[in-house]
From TrEMBL:
It holds the Pfam family ABC_tran. InterPro entries: AAA+_ATPase, ABC_transporter-like_ATP-bd, ABC_transporter-like_CS, ABC_transpr_LolD-like, MacB-like_ATP-bd, P-loop_NTPase. This is ABC transporter ATP-binding protein. The keyword Nucleotide-binding applies. It comes from the Bacteria. It comes from Paenibacillus xylanivorans. Residues 2-234 form the ABC transporter domain. Keywords: ATP-binding, Nucleotide-binding, Transport. The keyword Nucleotide-binding applies. One of its GO terms (cellular component) is plasma membrane. GO terms for molecular function: ATP binding; ATP hydrolysis activity; transmembrane transporter activity. CDD domains: ABC_MJ0796_LolCDE_FtsE.
Length: 234
């Protein structure tokens, strides 16, 4: 479903060239829930942005649904991202002047889907994340955890092949973090959507199915999480 092959990347700054990722190889199966774990500066966000087509690597291939996004033209990639890729940000990134329902519908506006169909899909997803009663409120009227649930619903509305999440619980307290993780696990089970989730917290990573650990830009470990080893039904 998702393959990263021999990806390396460098940044240039005032000091010169900084290697950030070195020869990364990853394979994620359809419907898998994968954590990218590593300490600050290990390269997690850079790798996530490369996999989501937000940047191009210096070398290597990134295949989603058997298509190499590195070699796509900008136009083709923009279209591919709209239909195949969802993204959840740490800071939710909701539009303040749109209602909750309008925020969830937005990706379908860009796809030219008619309003009644958009509304129907948005309300269904808001029901799945437990926010159907809040659909006509604005983001500022919701708690952080509720806003993140809206952003999760928005990421799913185009039925993408894979959803990338950058520290989705990074701004939340422990109890709300647990709620968000359990919603992601439930959606992964029900919709068979593939998730790749960046975190610097081992406790969060171990609740996914697979944990990939980065250190100083290198992949140092990859395997089943403790939850899966212990036989939990994720
Ligand atoms: N645009 C940039 N220009 C130069 N260096 C960068 C740039 N973006 C990131 N870096 C460097 O690349 C390295 C990896 O950064 P990255 O943000 O991918 O790490 P991370 O593991 O996600 O860290 P964090 O958990 O703190 O977000 C860091 O050393 C960072 O300073």
């Amino acid at each position: 479903m998702l393959r990263v092959e021999q990806v390396s990347h460098t940044f240039r700054n005032a000091q010169g060239i900084v290697p950030v990722l070195q020869d990364i190889n990853i394979s994620v199966g359809k419907g898998e829930m994968v954590a990218l774990l590593g300490s600050s500066g290990s390269g997690k966000s850079t790798l996530l942005h490369l996999m989501a087509g937000l940047m191009k690597p210096d070398t290597g291939k990134i295949l989603i649904a058997d298509q190499d996004i590195v070699r796509m033209s900008e136009n083709r990639l923009a279209e591919f991202r709209r239909t195949h890729i969802g993204f959840i940000f740490q800071a939710y990134e909701l539009l303040a002047n749109l209602t909750i329902r309008e925020n969830v519908e937005l990706p379908l506006v860009f796809q030219g889907i008619r309003p009644s169909r958009r509304k129907q899909k948005a309300m269904h997803l808001l029901e799945q994340v437990g926010l159907v009663g809040k659909s006509e409120l604005f983001p500022s009227q919701l708690s952080g955890g509720q806003q993140q649930r809206v952003s999760i619903a928005r990421s799913l509305i185009t039925e993408p092949s894979v959803i990338f999440a950058d520290e989705p619980t990074g701004n939340l307290d422990t109890r709300t973090e647990e709620e968000i993780i359990s919603i992601l696990q439930q959606l992964n089970r029900e919709m068979d959507t593939t998730f790749v989730i960046v975190t610097h917290e081992a406790e969060v990573a171990e609740q996914m199915q697979v944990v990939i650990t980065l250190q100083d830009g290198c992949l140092v470990k990859s395997g089943q999480s403790k939850a899966v080893e212990q036989g939990a039904r994720l």
